[in-house]
Write a structure and sequence with these properties.
Organism: Tamaricihabitans halophyticus
CATH class of the largest domain: Alpha Beta
InterPro entries: D-isomer_2_OHA_DH_cat_dom, D-isomer_DH_CS, D-isomer_DH_NAD-bd, NAD(P)-bd_dom_sf
CATH superfamily of the largest domain: NAD(P)-binding Rossmann-like Domain
Largest sheet: 8 strands, mixed
Number of helices: 11
Protein name: Phosphoglycerate dehydrogenase-like enzyme
Family: Belongs to the D-isomer specific 2-hydroxyacid dehydrogenase family.
Oligomer: single chain
Structural class: alpha/beta
Keywords: NAD, Oxidoreductase
Number of domains: 2
CATH topology of the largest domain: Rossmann fold
CATH architecture of the largest domain: 3-Layer(aba) Sandwich
Length: 311
């Protein structure tokens, strides 16, 4: 943050003290991207002209007063795409090559030959066609998987997905997928989109991978599908309650891989977040269009979006 401190007076604060720090502030950098403190402190934002969040998802700061305001919101799109795609490919390989069983047998010193699955030629359905979804599609296609996408509207001959189907056709296309990857932004339209009916539509050999938002999933429905083997397994990096409670049955299911909301967090990610914000600070001070301006009605950054700070 040193480069930013040379350009402006910077106050560091916590969620509990945000209201006091917001008084007189022109811009806010929300570092804790899971915090809902801004809504509680909003009454103190007497001259706020710009909010930036250190994540791609913006749902924690999309409360009604913020949405209705003229204050622009920017996110950290561009930092997480490649690392998230690598994570998804990694768990696809972990499932197909049954690494979990290999590790278990190794710990027991048991030599047991097994056959594994091929991933080339399998089908992946990526739910969410923004930059992260596209990076995932590109990497999965590079290893020979056949990829389709679910987005807001249908697209034929998409350069990354081939075919993109509208979100209201999700259940129509779930039965075709060997891997279903959830990376959609959390909006009123996507909340709970993976429910009992969605899992029932998937083939029993399919795996579900969630690197988007925990609230995209109705967790009890996912748990029931895994316990009943309606689907073959799941890799879960995000949850509706974080940290995942120690008494959650998900921890003990043999067909589940759990990671603690870290799929995008490679070495150097914090520096990359600060560098992106610093670049935007320069643009903001020069009254030039900002990068990654969120459409607050949609809940994400539309293609080519830019705007000047409100003032």
């Amino acid at each position: 943050m040193e480069q930013i401190e040379r350009l402006a007076h910077v106050r560091y604060t916590s969620g509990d003290e945000l209201a006091e720090a917001l008084v007189g502030a022109d811009a806010l950098f929300v570092w804790d991207f899971q915090s809902s403190a801004l809504e509680r402190a909003w009454h103190a934002a007497d001259r706020l002209r710009w909010v930036h969040i250190a994540s791609a998802g913006v749902d924690p700061v999309l409360f009604p007063a913020m949405v209705d305001s003229e204050i622009p919101l920017t996110n950290s799109r561009g930092v997480f795409e490649s690392s998230l795609a690598e994570y998804v490919l990694g768990v696809v390989l972990a499932f197909a090559k049954d690494f979990a069983t290999s590790l278990e047998l190794q710990q027991q010193r048991i030599w047991r030959h097994r056959e594994s699955e091929r991933i080339a030629g399998t089908r992946a359905l990526v739910v969410g066609t923004g930059p992260i979804g596209r990076a995932i599609a590109q990497l999965l296609r590079a290893v020979g998987m056949r990829v389709a996408g679910i987005g807001r509207r249908a697209v034929d001959d998409d350069p990354d997905f081939g075919s993109v189907y509208p979100s209201d056709e999700l259940r129509t296309h779930l039965p075709d997928a060997d891997y279903v990857v959830a990376v959609a932004p959390l909006t009123p339209a996507t909340e709970g989109m993976f429910n009992a009916a969605s899992f029932a539509a998937m083939k029993p050999t399919a795996r579900f991978i969630n690197v988007g938002r925990g609230d995209l999933v109705v967790t009890p429905d996912l748990l029931a599908a895994l316990q009943a083997k309606t689907i073959a397994g799941a890799a879960l990096d995000v949850f509706d309650t974080e940290p995942l409670p120690a008494d959650s049955p998900l921890w003990s299911l043999p067909n589940v891989l759990i990671s603690p909301h870290m799929s995008a967090d490679v070495k150097g990610w914090r520096n990359a977040l600060v560098e992106l914000f610093a670049d935007n600070v320069q643009l903001w001070l020069q009254e030039r269009p900002l990068r990654n301006v969120v459409d607050k009605q949609l809940g994400y950054v539309p293609t080519g979006a830019a705007a000047r700070p409100a003032g």
